[in-house]
Amino acid sequence: MNKLAITRALANIVGAPFFVVIPENAEQISQVVKLAREHHLAIVPRGAGTGLCGGTTPLAGGVMISLTRMKKIFAIDYENRVARVGAGLVNLDLSNALAARGFFYAPDPGSQAASTIGGNIAANSGGPHCLAYGVTANHVLGLEIVLDNGEIVWVGGEAPGAPGYDLVGAVIGSEGTFGIITQALVKILPLPEEIRTLLAIFDSVERASHAVSAIIAAGIIPAALEMLDAISLRAVENAMHVGYPTDAGAVLLIEIDGAREGLDELQTLIGDICREFESRELRVAQTKDARAELWRGRKHALPALGRLAPNYYIQDGCVPRSKLPHVLAEIETIAKKYDLVIANFFHAGDGNLHPNILFDLRQAGAYERVIHAGKEILQLCVDAGGTISGEHGIGMEKMEYMPLIFSDADLGEMKKLRAAICPSGLFNPCKIIPHGASCAELFSNNLSRALAASGDMWI
Ligand SMILES: Cc1cc2nc3c(=O)[nH]c(=O)nc-3n(C[C@H](O)[C@H](O)[C@H](O)COP(=O)(O)OP(=O)(O)OC[C@H]3O[C@@H](n4cnc5c(N)ncnc54)[C@H](O)[C@@H]3O)c2cc1C
User: Fold this and answer.
1) For residue 459, is it within any domain?
2) Which residue blocks in 277-365 are alpha helix, DSSP H?
């Protein structure tokens, strides 16, 4: 097959890039960006590809830049509690590198064993421990970025509270549309003196949800406050054998940490609140291994659902946590309406829901039912005073739902910001902001330009 035929075949695959580049440094990325711009090719940055909103799908073909080789830890400054790392570094590798000196990197998405620091920043990822520690945005001090003219710049820096516009803040959560993050300066924290992990067992999701609100209302901010419902509990236990109760309606996985002094009182208080909402048992992990087992279950909840159905669609909405009982009951109603099974495990303390819609794509009409149910869940979150994404971002998946929370004027301002930072519009096009035309229309000459750009470089 010749080059033209291969490229045509690639272009026919939905979401396939024309080129994949795996650079080792920012200078190489700069050269690729300049070349891509010369030939008007879209550029899609990619970390580990664990994103859940289609953010790395190259809708306009073009060049995909994988950051996975740029995983160096350049410097760790324990005194000032800062680390400078390559964007392709896997999140957990940073905490593992810090552990021996008693430090860690706090943002811990469930994907932390695979996802990259750069991807976490581009998505402004959360995670179980972001309830107390804050999401990724709270832990980034500075960024090295390649702009769409190929220029390599640093924004932010070690000194906190720098004057001027918060350009670091603008790039965080921009999902690859503003520039390519190549290095990050991130905060590191000392490991807490003691950590306790509790499992509060309830007969119903409703009781567990009320306990979540009551714990926060009592002025307690646990390090983590996660919920798993009955369907998720059974799926996890069958797959992972971590000791979760399979006859419960819901559990709360609660972690408290900090100075040893005071943790006993906190644990008692949480136990009392859970009992007030008819928790039938409060288990406390007695060893480090027992704690790790409880978390292993939670962190494998998503893959465990694969045992229940051949396909699942994970939703990501956010509501004020006091609305959890109402919203979870309504999700059950939506599941019945569309004859679907929906499993819930989520960051309950943040009100960040992850209804997982289980289905079989081979069944006629299943896909349409799932899409309708997903949209109704998001509308439900918005109606409850919440929003359409708690942490997974917008990407291509939720672009059309942006008008549920933003006016035309809001979206217009976002477009202006995007055009100011990325005038060419080539970074991750056709994502986040609805654009009114298909990507194929916007990049109609893309294929011939790709061929011109490839020259003799085809491999
Ligand atoms: C099992 C599982 C559990 C998860 N749990 C959580 C969770 O608890 N919390 C949470 O928030 N998310 C979670 N996620 C979603 C996902 O892991 C996060 O969004 C993560 O931050 C993506 O990182 P990544 O390296 O895989 O990025 P990718 O998926 O490769 O990219 C994500 C987005 O960032 C852009 N991007 C990537 N790297 C760069 C870069 N260097 N410069 C500029 N843009 C870039 C991409 O273009 C894309 O738009 C989970 C996913 C899975 C599969």
Assistant:
1) no
2) 288-299, 301-304, 324-337
CB 184 near ligand 1, within 6 Å: no
Eight-state DSSP code of residue 78:
T
Regarding whether 337 and 249 lie in a shared domain, the answer is no
> 9 in a domain, yes or no?
yes
Structural domain of 61: 3-67+412-454
Contact predicate 58/176, CB 8 Å: no
Per-residue pLDDT tens for 138-161?
999 999 999 999 999 999 998 877
Q: Measured from the CA of 45, which atom of ligand 1 is nearest?
A: 47
* Dist CA 39 CA 438 (whole Å): 20
In a domain? residue 446: yes
Pick from 459, 410, 458: nearest CA to 434: 410
Q: Is there an atom of ligand 1 within 6 Å of 109 CB? A: yes
Question: Nearest residue CA, atom 1 of ligand 1?
Answer: 111
Which residue among 115, 236, 347, 387 has the greatest number of ligand 1 atoms within 8 angstroms of its CB, and so is best to mutate? 115
Evaluate whether residue 214 is within a structural domain: yes
What percent of the chain is predicted at pLDDT more than 70? 92
Q: Of all residues in the chain, what percent carry a pLDDT higher than 90?
A: 89
**Are 382 and 418 in a shared domain?**
no
Same domain, 63 and 82: no
- Cβ of 389 closer than 6 Å to ligand 1, yes or no, is no
Q: Which two tokens stand for residue 323?
A: 């609305």
Predicted confidence (pLDDT) at residue 455 exceeds the cutoff of 90: no
- The model's pLDDT over 189-245, given as tens digits with 9 standing for 90+, comes to 999 999 999 999 999 999 999 999 999 999 999 999 999 999 999 999 999 999 999
In 280-396 the beta strands, taken as DSSP E runs, fall at 281-284, 311-314, 317-318, 341-346, 352-353, 355-359
| Residue 162's CATH number | 3.30.465.10
133 in the same domain as 58: no
CA of 452 to the centre of ligand 1 (A): 32
Where residue 36 sits, what CATH number does that domain have? 3.30.43
How many CB atoms sit inside 10 A of residue 77's CB?
Answer: 12
pLDDT in tens, 409-450: 999 999 999 999 999 999 999 999 998 766 766 675 555 555
Model confidence, pTM: 0.93
> What 8-state DSSP symbol labels residue 191?
P
